[in-house]
UniProtKB/TrEMBL annotation:
Naturally occurring in which organism (per UniProt): Aquifex aeolicus
Enzyme class, spelled out: transferase
Domain Bacterial DNA polymerase III alpha subunit NTPase residue range list: 2-131
Protein EC: 2.7.7.7
Gene3D superfamilies xrefs: 1.10.150.870, Bacterial DNA polymerase III alpha subunit, thumb domain, Nucleic acid-binding proteins
Protein's UniProt keywords contain Cytoplasm: no
Gene: dnaE
Entry protein name: DNA-directed DNA polymerase
Length: 699
């Protein structure tokens, strides 16, 4: 009968990885003596003691809470459910049915009734076999290079010090490169400037919340570039920590350190690795005593050994297995090598296999930045996937068009043969109607795959619609008779249809028609950073994936993606702003959004908290003046002089005329500095005036 708020308050007192990665059990929270917890979690005992004390006070004062916790104690640690490991395989010297209990899972797969920890305790070998899409992509790239260039790329024999690869990594040009393509990772690579394979391995291990928050990454970078000295806990550990500049990065380093300092056997060192990797507190406590005792017996100062162990305990919360990082490092290096040396094959394969719309758009943008032209789909030229068509030209694959699919695309390519299709009616007659139906035909027209006919897409779509309700009647109709007189298709309609079936715009962009109005008024999405401090920015783009949600108090808010020519950002519109702008927010509509940028800690994606939504047409009617409101005291407190200097930086003879409104207690004046005194009302200027100078303005 406890209220949710009471149970929630109780649960939030239990550290669940939020304090330096520390997890406390319910038993520890309820009954473990404080002195034991102080010893166990010495490096952040203040936070632990406060939470434990408050937890126990609630239990003492409320019998219902105490009863709930005692019930939960009986449940803690029990198996909650059965599930199948995604990639785990158990290997034994004889049939598993003779050694352990087995069962069939719901899909009929044979599985063990013991979990992986119990299996290892029994001496059985458990291996994880991960299937990575990137390996298939690398094979396809290699095959394509062999086919086009007659060159055999042998990944296992590549030079691991290739200058072109490290130049690409140092520039952060890693879109599409395995494990290195996130925004944060690109920034880290630019700071680190890796120049060896060991750096790639380290960056894959370091780029996680724990090392980033702890300052470990900064220490690694500063030591690599000589900005701080490389230091070792003990001189004897230099051989272990030299490759990472004295920073503990891998579990294997801790294993080796335990052997050198405490005399651990290889088996004991592996037990320590498991305790670290699995975050097993009881085992860590056992290994702690053995580590300190062994090191002291070997002549190392106890105080320094204890400090090192505290570092190892902190490291346990974000430790990484070096062998895993090395394996991934090879795949990262190979994909970077293909991008650096064979970019045509790299992009042709990546664009064909990528199914995530946001990543697909980023790949298209990256290809264009590297000088590639992405050609539209064409039933006479396109293959199933993207393919290379001349120098730095890649043709959109018809199998990538939404609503078509690879099987249908293969049927189209097969029916086309060497002679190609003469037009829409010829296409309909020759392609297997079991593979290509009316919806597929419409998708091809929307994507521009029949533009070679010289007819407008809107006309072709109307002809398809009016040609008959079934595909067979369409094949028999006179598709190319005189079409009904209709208006020419709007460019915006064509772009919308392209986006619908291809995921991006290829013939232009909806922002193009507003270029004159929007010039200088917004920041391209690719230039957005997370400035913090509440600074506002203005961005313009197309509304997509619009969702209107009802809040708990019955009001409505909106979440949508805004797409410009350079990228995409999630926008969040809270109820008060949504109420004022609900009529402006429509799918596929161009809007200008003003708000603050935040970063999602888990995904590293930026999002915009929208404070104002404006239509481009509204901007064109805002007048030709930039009005700045000043108070009398601003004329002698230095703000007027700051304003003058700022305005000088944004002088533009074709911009807006500046008007000053001077207000005092008993007077108001409107000042026009000069009809020729004009400025560019860019987002940067507006941000400086409002955020830095704290001035009120109007346009």
């Amino acid at each position: 009968g406890l209220q949710y708020s009471t149970a929630d308050q109780l649960a939030k007192l239990i550290p669940q990885g939020d304090v330096q990665g520390t997890w406390l059990s319910l038993e520890e929270m309820y009954s473990t003596p404080l002195e034991v917890l102080r010893e166990r979690y010495g490096h952040h005992r203040g936070d632990i003691e406060d939470n434990v004390s408050r937890f126990r006070k609630l239990c003492r004062e409320n019998p219902e809470i105490d009863r709930l916790v005692k019930i939960a104690l009986r449940l803690e640690g029990l198996t909650r459910h059965t599930s199948l490991h995604a990639a785990g395989v158990v290997i034994a010297p004889r049939p598993l049915s003779e050694l352990i209990p087995l069962y069939y899972d719901r899909d009929g797969a044979v599985a063990t009734q013991f979990d992986m920890s119990k299996l290892e305790e029994l001496g059985l070998l458990k291996m994880d076999f991960l299937g990575l899409k990137t390996l298939t992509e690398l094979k396809s790239m290699r095959d394509l290079v062999r086919e086009r260039r007659g060159v055999e790329v042998e990944f296992l024999n590549l030079p691991m010090d290739d200058p072109a690869v490290f130049e690409l990594l140092q520039e952060g040009n890693t879109t599409g490169v395995f494990q290195l393509e996130s925004r944060g990772m690109k920034g880290l690579l630019r700071r680190l400037r890796p120049d060896s394979f060991e750096d790639i391995v380290a960056v894959l291990a370091l780029y996680r919340p724990g090392p980033l928050k702890s300052g470990l990454v900064d220490r690694y970078i500063n030591r690599k570039h000589g900005r701080e000295p490389v230091e070792y806990p003990f001189p004897q550990l230099e051989e272990v920590l030299r490759e990472t500049y004295g920073v503990i990065v891998y579990q294997e380093q801790v294993m080796k350190m335990s052997q050198i300092l405490a005399g651990f056997t290889p088996g004991e060192a592996d037990t320590l690795r498991k305790a670290i990797g699995k975050k097993k507190r009881d085992l860590m406590e056992e290994m702690r005593e053995k580590f300190i005792r062994g090191a002291v017996e070997r002549g190392f100062p106890e105080e320094k050994v204890r400090r090192l162990w505290e570092d190892i305990e902190k490291f346990a919360s974000y430790s990484f297995n070096k062998s895993h990082s090395v394996a991934y490092g090879y795949i990262s290096y190979w994909t970077a090598y293909m991008k650096a040396h064979y970019p045509e094959e790299f992009f042709a394969v990546k664009l064909t296999t990528e199914r995530n719309d946001a990543k697909f758009i980023n790949l298209i943008k990256d290809a264009k930045l590297m000088g590639f032209e992405i050609l539209p789909p064409d039933v006479n030229r396109s293959g199933v996937g993207f393919h290379i068509e001349g120098d730095r030209r890649i043709r959109f694959g018809i199998g990538r068009i939404k609503g078509v699919g690879e099987d249908t695309a293969r049927a189209i390519v097969e029916a086309r043969g060497n002679e190609g299709f003469r037009g829409l009616q010829d296409f309909v007659r020759r392609v297997d109607s079991k593979k290509v139906n009316k919806k597929v035909l419409e998708a091809l027209v929307k994507a521009g795959a029949f533009d070679f006919t010289g007819k407008e897409r809107g006309e072709l779509l109307r002809t398809v619609e009016e040609g008959g309700r079934t595909f067979s009647s369409l094949a028999q109709s006179s598709l190319f008779g005189k079409a009904p007189e209709r208006r020419r298709s709007e460019v915006s309609d064509l772009l919308r249809l392209e986006k619908e079936v291809m995921g991006f715009y290829i013939s232009g962009h909806p922002l193009d028609r507003y270029e004159r109005i929007l010039k200088g008024r917004y920041t391209p999405l690719e230039e957005l950073e997370n400035p913090g401090g509440g600074a506002e920015v203005s961005v313009a783009g197309v509304v997509t994936s619009l969702q209107v949600k009802k809040t708990r108090n019955g009001t409505y808010m909106a979440v949508f993606n805004l797409i410009d020519r350079t990228g995409v950002i999630e926008c969040v519109v809270f109820p008060d702003v949504y109420e004022a702008s609900r009529e402006k927010l429509r799918e596929d509509r161009v809007v200008v959004c003003r708000g603050t940028v935040e970063e999602d800690v888990e995904t590293e994606n930026l999002k915009l908290l929208v404070r104002e939504v404006t239509m481009p047409e509204e901007l064109s009617t805002l007048g030709s003046y930039l009005t700045v409101y000043l108070r009398r005291e601003d004329t002698f407190n230095g703000k007027l002089e700051k304003l003058r200097k700022v305005l000088e930086q944004f002088r533009d003879p074709e911009g807006k005329q500046v008007v000053l409104h001077l207000e005092g207690e008993d007077f108001r004046a409107v000042l026009h500095p000069s009809p020729d005194y004009r400025v560019d009302p860019s987002p940067q200027l507006l941000d400086i005036l409002t955020a830095k100078l704290k001035l009120r303005i109007s346009l």
